[in-house]
Design a protein that fits this description.
The chain is α+β, with helices and mostly antiparallel strands and 436 residues long. The chain contains eleven helices and six strands. It has helices at residues 2-22, 32-40, 42-59, 106-173, 179-191, 193-214, 237-244, 249-273, 317-384, 389-424, 428-434; strands at 24-26, 68-77, 92-105, 222-224, 276-287, 296-306. A four-stranded antiparallel beta sheet has the order 2-3-5-6. Strand 5 (276-287) and strand 6 (296-306) form a beta hairpin. It starts with a helix and ends with a helix.
């Protein structure tokens, strides 16, 4: 029996050690979590496929001037219906042909430019998806840190309540405390357990969401390591706006959309008003009697200029298409103006929020200091018998709430900095350097 127990314990220890060794500890400072997301995130991988398709179109835009080639061959038979043919021919003939046709117009060059614009727009879309993913990863990482530290606070709070309960139990057994005091201490201790359990469950749920964001298996064990310490920055809003406003990804995207709309207007106008040149060549060969082939062939080359006229007629579908394309281009210009104004408003809003978060860090930091001193004094007074257990519990709860508020204030500031990085399309080091 002892041997079996020993073997079971060894197996358990081995399993624990293997689990600990396989557990992956992620940090945000070294961008480990971000690197995993860049490699495995499903949405980003899908966006990269769209970018590959656009790149293939750009690399092969030469096919816009690729002629239309065709080849054909066939056999046919002709015979009399009412009289017998005496020619001695089999009646079967054979033929084949090759042809090529190429149409050149101003639309060809405009379409090639449109392919380049499409790739550039898709590239911007991919960059936006990539940057959004980075912000999401870092925000979720910091939020997990908040919950992890909150668990530590609650566990420490539970430990303090347990120590008071055990002390009250000892005092009761020694006749130094009433049963009511013992029950109050135990109730205080037990009432903290559900909140801690809820926090742990919430943390594990968020951790699964984080794994999904990183593209990891949900049963893959990971842990996070980092700090919520922040160094508030002194930011010059006007300088940031002047430097980075036009560099934002959404501003670049609408500017590219305007270019595309103007290109589409040029394409529609050229297609309906500009002449085109059609070049064609064809070669045919045939034999009238397949049994005794006597081949003959011919080569034709032609060129034609075509000028569409409907586009010059007011009210025609072609002229209306040109006007619709012009209106779309004007709408794209208005969208650029609106996006720039909204972008500036967003940056200013983030900067104001950051200032509010910075002040909250100072206020909640001071609240923690005061709550800690109040708790220490109340605990000492309780030990000396001049304060009740309820007073200690109130002081302890106030301390926990103050520490939780400080955690939240730090997270909000860090989250705001990430929003600012994305809003300016610049990393934090670059932003800090600009202000020096």
């Amino acid at each position: 029996m002892k041997v079996r127990i020993l073997i079971a314990n060894l197996l358990l220890i081995t399993a624990v050690l293997l689990t600990a060794e396989s557990e992956q500890v992620l940090t945000v400072q070294e961008d480990q979590a971000v690197a995993l997301a860049m490699e495995n995130n499903v949405s980003l991988r899908s966006a990269s496929l769209d970018l590959e398709s656009a790149r293939a179109g750009l690399d092969n835009r030469w096919n816009l001037i690729l002629p239309d080639f065709s080849a054909s061959t066939g056999i046919s038979r002709s015979d009399s219906l009412l009289t017998r043919s005496g020619s001695g021919s089999s009646g079967w003939s054979v033929n084949g042909s090759l042809s090529a046709q190429l149409t050149l117009s101003a639309s060809t060059a405009i379409s090639a430019a449109g392919t380049a614009l499409a790739y550039q727009a898709e590239s911007l879309s991919y960059d936006a998806a990539r940057e959004e993913l980075i912000v999401s990863v870092k925000k979720q990482f910091y939020y997990l840190l908040v919950n992890k530290e909150n668990m530590d606070l609650q566990e420490r709070n539970l430990d303090l309540a347990e120590k008071r309960y055990l002390q009250a139990k000892t005092n009761f057994e020694n006749g130094l405390a009433s049963e009511m005091t013992l029950m109050e201490a135990r109730n205080s201790y037990e009432s903290l357990k559900p909140d801690l359990l809820d926090t742990k469950t919430s943390y594990e749920t968020q951790l699964m969401s984080f794994k999904k964001l990183l593209g990891l298996d949900l049963d893959n064990p990971i842990d996070i390591d980092g700090s919520l310490d922040v160094q508030p920055l002194d930011l010059d809003g006007e300088l940031l706006i002047d430097t980075y406003l036009m560099n934002r990804l959404d501003v670049q995207a609408v500017m590219k959309a305007l270019e595309n709309a103007e290109n589409q207007l040029s394409l529609t106008t050229a297609g309906n008003l500009s002449p085109s040149v059609k070049l064609s060549t064809g070669w045919t060969s045939s034999a009238q009697d397949i049994s005794k082939p006597d081949w003959s062939d011919s080569l034709t080359v032609s060129a034609a200029v075509t000028l569409p006229l409907n586009g010059f007629i007011p009210g025609s579908s072609e002229s209306l298409a040109i006007k619709d394309a012009a209106r779309s281009a004007e709408q794209a210009r208005l969208s650029v103006e609106d996006t720039i104004l909204s972008a500036e408003q967003e940056i200013r809003t983030i900067l104001m929020e950051l200032e509010g978060y910075r002040q909250n860090i100072e206020i909640t930091g001071l609240s923690v200091e005061l709550a800690q001193k109040t708790y220490d004094m109340t605990e000492a007074a309780y030990q000396s018998g001049s304060r009740e257990l309820l007073d200690v519990e109130d002081a302890q709860n106030n301390l926990l709430e103050a520490e939780q508020n400080l955690l939240l204030s730090r997270y909000n500031y860090l989250s705001g900095l990430l929003d600012l990085e994305y809003a300016l399309n610049a990393d934090l080091e670059e932003i800090i350097t600009l202000g020096e």
